[in-house]
Amino acid sequence: MADSPELTGVALLQSAAHNKSTAYTEEERDRLKLRGLLPAGIGTMDTQLERILANLHRKESDIEKYIFLSSLQDRNDRLFYRLVIDNFEEIMPLIYTPTVGQACKEFANIYRRGKGFYVTANDRGRIREILDNWPHGTVRIIVVTDGERILGLGDLGASGMGIPIGKLSLYCACAGISPDQTMPVMLDVGTDNEALLEDPLYLGIRQKRLRGDDYFELVDEFIRAVKDAWPNVLIQFEDFIAKNAFALLNKYRENTFCFNDDIQGTAAVVLAGIYASTRISGVPFRDLRFVFLGAGSAAAGIGSMIAQALEAEGLGQEEARRRLWFFDSKGLVTRSRESLSDHIRGFARDLPNCEPIHAIGRHQPHILVGATGRPGIFTENLVRKMSGVVDRPGIFALSNPTSRAECTAEEAYRWTDGRAIFASGSPFGEVEYGGRTFRPGQGNNAYIFPGVGLGMLACEGRRIPETVFLESARALAAAVTETDLAYGSVYPRIDRIREVSLKIAVAVAGHAYRHGLTDHEPPEDLTRYIRDSMYDPAY
Question: Is 96 known to be catalytic?
Answer without folding.
Answer: yes
